[in-house]
């Protein structure tokens, strides 16, 4: 049920109840049938139309322009207004024997008390509706901003990856032209896959692993025996959806700052497993991790990845890099 239908349903129910309650302080038996009918109809439509008119007036004001004190006083003002109308209606339809001011005040307060709950409910409902709409707008705006930032980071990712791959081929052309040509073919396939993944909000683990294997195969041509690698993947988790280009970012870092800095080369191990609703991805490489910032080094790889994880998962995901047993371990933990 939408808000408009709900509003009119509550209106009808509320003023039907108020009309029936009005009988309590009127000697209804003194009325003939036609007067009773007119009385009930007037009572019902007076409340219905007056409250709707009240809603229209309140709706002309922007919620931010109304103070908390005004919000508290609005239902009282509304109840006093319609209570006054009902009191006049009572005196016109029924000849009270006691026309003193005290009797008038008593009838007036009874009428105000009858309609006050409606105004309290209406203002509470209006406040909750405004609050909900505001929260939805804020949430929608935050989602648009988050998606915009993610798209911006993903657009930075592919040029960064391409730059690293081209550097690898450039180094290879100085060593072996035949392998360089093979590398270009592999790079073409690799870029096709990475571009497809870069356009997706999510990728399957198997797609990420295929990209990782292609990347390491390309780097193997450049490093030859200086690079060894293997995969340790838990069974039956290939269809799990993860953030695209995660493993590859860790691999680029492992090759550039790990294997590439060692004369004898080293080993890279890629692992993936699940644990209590989380998937844990790990890239372990030979070398030593230096946590000190390197201001002379460009690149956006790991910093980009951290921002993407934060935007996508918030505090539910993490990226840790540490030295362990003579090797560097980069570990991503994210929900799936």
TrEMBL record:
<dbReference type="InterPro" id="IPR010559">
    <property type="entry name" value="Sig_transdc_His_kin_internal"/>
</dbReference>
<feature type="domain" description="Signal transduction histidine kinase internal region">
    <location>
        <begin position="149"/>
        <end position="227"/>
    </location>
</feature>
<protein>
    <submittedName>
        <fullName>Histidine kinase</fullName>
    </submittedName>
</protein>
<feature type="transmembrane region" description="Helical">
    <location>
        <begin position="7"/>
        <end position="26"/>
    </location>
</feature>
<keyword id="KW-0808">Transferase</keyword>
<feature type="transmembrane region" description="Helical">
    <location>
        <begin position="101"/>
        <end position="125"/>
    </location>
</feature>
<feature type="transmembrane region" description="Helical">
    <location>
        <begin position="69"/>
        <end position="89"/>
    </location>
</feature>
<dbReference type="InterPro" id="IPR036890">
    <property type="entry name" value="HATPase_C_sf"/>
</dbReference>
<keyword id="KW-0812">Transmembrane</keyword>
<keyword id="KW-0472">Membrane</keyword>
<keyword id="KW-0418">Kinase</keyword>
<dbReference type="GO" id="GO:0016301">
    <property type="term" value="F:kinase activity"/>
</dbReference>
<feature type="transmembrane region" description="Helical">
    <location>
        <begin position="38"/>
        <end position="57"/>
    </location>
</feature>
<dbReference type="InterPro" id="IPR050640">
    <property type="entry name" value="Bact_2-comp_sensor_kinase"/>
</dbReference>
<keyword id="KW-1133">Transmembrane helix</keyword>
<dbReference type="Pfam" id="PF06580">
    <property type="entry name" value="His_kinase"/>
</dbReference>
